[in-house]
Amino acid sequence: MRVQFKSSYDDDINLFQDNRHRIQYGILILLAIAAPFVLPEYFVGELTQIAIWSLAGLGLMLLVGHTGQVSLGHAAFMAIGAFANIALMARGWPFIPALIASAVITGVAGAVLARPLLRMTGIYLAIATLALSVIIEDIAIIAEPVTGGVSGVLAPIIELFGYEIDRYGTPTAFYYLCLGVLLLVTLMYANLLRSPSGRAFLAVRDSEVSARALGVNVANTKTLAFTLSCAITGLAGALYAHMVQVVNYESFLILISITLLLQVVIGGLGAMHGAFLGAIVVVLLPQVIATLRDLVNAHTPIALGNYPGMDMAAFALIILVMVIYEPRGLYGVWLKVRTWFQLFPLYRKGMFRRSRTYLKTERMR
Amino acid sequence: MDVLQLLISGIANGCIYGLLALGFVLIYKASEAVNFAQGDMLMLGAFLGITFINTGYADLPFLMGLVCAALVLGAFGYLLERFVLRGIFGQPQFAMVILTIALGFLIRFFAGTVWGHNPMSLETPFTGQVLRFGGLLIPMVDAVIIGATVLLTTVLYFFFARTRLGVAMQASSQNQMAAYYMGIPVKRVNAIVWALAGVVAAIAGVLFAAKGAVEPSVGLLFGIKAFAAAVIGGLGSLPGALVGGLLVGIVEPFAGRYLPSGFGQVAPYVLMLAVLILRPGGLFAQVSQKKV
Questions:
Q1: DSSP strand E in chain B: where?
Q2: Residue B263 and residue B279 in contact, taking contact as beta carbons nearer than 8 Å
Q3: Residue B274 CB-half CA count within 13 A
Q4: Which residue among A153, A210, B72, B290 has its CA within the 20 to 30 Å range from the CA of A42?
Q5: Which of B25, B74, B14 is nearest to B282 (CA)?
Q6: Contacts of residue B172 in chain A, CB cutoff 8 Å?
Q7: For residue A319, which residues of chain B lie inside 8 Å, CB to CB?
Q8: How far apart are CA A294 and CA A277, in angstroms?
């Protein structure tokens, strides 16, 4: 069992607890950088997808996991980021300014929408953002000069420092691009969480009333969280556009919004790790199911190919089990396992028991 | 005359939205959570209705089939609460949102596996019949839908306002702990609410199938429009759900007719966002002031 000896106030908010912690994450980053040299090309594509969905997940995690505002419409912001990026690049902008501009545009769109949206709480907010996600599909068709109408737009090839980066031509370079953006955003996110604004987010999530009593401006804090969340999601949308190459109104269906929310829940709300774990599940689950299906088809007379939509159903089943038995998601499972090893043999069953909340409402009719 | 015709078809559509919204409101009244699988339960009800009523399947008379579908889906709702949703009793409402979204996916997969993905429609005794009032043509289906909706809303309204069980449901949603202390079996009441939501979904589903074709994915988009309806009315108010449903139903054809193409589908959601921004609690808001 390791005991951390704190010798300054900064020890509570440092990015890394100690050198061991630093080395662990260093190894993880090295592994991520080394992956394209070791793995076959197909898996590099999968890793790129994981990086992009992790980025989108981080955006939503900031809002849902750390500020406590449920959004069921984040695909809309992915769409804004994607269309903004492609439209700017088509008008001659270089890639990096266009990427940054697409994050800014999405952030501004989020900030404009945040004020009216965040007057609502809980379920109402979830439904309002869900409506946003439906509306964006139609807007993508109506706003033809930017979005190319029904047929959509084609993502141009990225030129960066004289190199041409293309998802199919140079998958490794595209992977490093996504990884680089992801690492930068992760670092900014981690720093944000230990700043006063980040702590204000957590305060708002845990209790708006007590946050207000402690001098947090709740409306501004929520707006800031929504803006940053949208900006990160917009970045993810821009990268996603370059990955799928063709973007139209069907690229950001409501199902993507829902999957994104389920992704952060499965990963574990309230922990940055959750966004990454959830992305791994979302990207790899269809592969695992396809492999299993081939196995079953090969060894038994049951033809599972006759049941379309099985990966979505399996995903839903995992969510179901997760919400009932482990509401803190995969990261919660990991925490328990880690604690079990750290405290061995002193771990007790009730250590992670949550207090129950009972329903009480202000509705009087 | 043209406007009247549009109005009537809008009202009939709106009634189905309203019925679905009633299902949301029922669950919301009892457990302050929104059932994101309600649209999929409607789809399931529609398919059950087709199975019980259509020739080539069980071939029952229309009303018998409706009752059977309602019973089956009611039992489904009860068992769902008893064996799945009770697992998250005591967790925040957000868990319920996620859980019902996942349930919706599972129901859709189940329906796709059993009934396939081709659109099906219901054979009813009144298909194709038309009522005439002067120059006004009212399809019999629309008349039946409007009548059934008004009846069901009235029954449910009095159920919540006057019966012991209805009042117990309201009590258990307003303060679970206090309801426990007063001797209300909160868990069983919740299960009954889910059964009731299943029955309402079955009725809405059968009426929906009488009007148009059903396929497994119909529940999701239809459900989202019904959310809009329930939210416009103010979640938690039965008459509000009906009014919201009617508004959405009426706005849709008129927007499709008089606005440039593409704006028609968006109109219900814009209406909802407008209502939410101006009156965050919906038209029939039930929270007068927030206590600390």
A1: 130-133, 136-139
A2: no
A3: 9
A4: A153
A5: B25
A6: 359
A7: 98-99, 101-102
A8: 25
Residue A245 has pLDDT above 80, yes or no: yes
Mean pLDDT of A258-278: 91
pLDDT digits (tens, 9 = 90+) for B264-279: 778 888 888 888 878 8
Which of B169, B180, B269 to substitute to test the interface with A, most A CBs within 10 Å?
Answer: B269
Three-state secondary structure of B249-274 = HHHHHHHHHHCCCCHHHHHHHHHHHH
* Sign of the torsion formed by the C-alpha atoms of B139, B140, B143 and B145: negative
Q: Given B90, B104, B235, which is nearest A357 (Cβ)? A: B90
Is A310:A293 a contact under the CB 8 Å cutoff?
Answer: yes
In CATH, the number for domain A39-352 is 1.10.3470
Domain extent listing, chain A: 39-352
A106 burial level (CB within 10 Å; 0-12, 13-18, 19+): buried
Res A54: pLDDT? 95
Within a 10 A sphere around the Cβ of A21, how many other Cβ atoms? 13
- Residue A232, C-beta contacts closer than 8 angstroms, at least 6 positions apart: A55, A56, A58, A59, A62, A103, A185, A189
How far is residue A259's CA from residue A249's CA, in Å, rounded to a whole number?
Answer: 17
Tens digit of pLDDT for each residue in A227-237?
A: 999 999 999 99
Please identify among residues 13-72 of chain B the ones whose CB lies closer than 8 Å to any CB of chain A.
Answer: 28, 31-34
Residue A108 CA: distances (Å) to CA of A93, A198, A234, A256, B251 = 19, 20, 11, 22, 30
Concatenated DSSP letters for A172-210?
HHHHHHHHHHHHHHHHHHHHHHTSHHHHHHHHHHH-HHH
Q: What are A126's two structure tokens?
A: 């979830």
pLDDT at A356 over 80: no
Q: How far is B117 from chain A (nearest CA, A)?
A: 10
CA distance A314 to A85: 34
**Which ipTM value was assigned to this complex?**
0.85
> In the structure encoding, which two tokens stand for residue B63, read together?
């009303």
**Alpha helices (runs of H) in A65-152, residue ranges in sequence order:** 74-90, 95-117, 122-142, 144-147
Is B116 in CB contact (< 8 Å) with chain A? no
CB neighbours of residue A47 within 10 Å: 21
* pTM for this predicted structure: 0.88
Facing residues of B132 across strands?
Answer: B137
- Widest Cα–Cα separation across chain A: 67
Amino acid letter, B203: I
Which 3 state secondary structure label does DSSP give B101?
helix
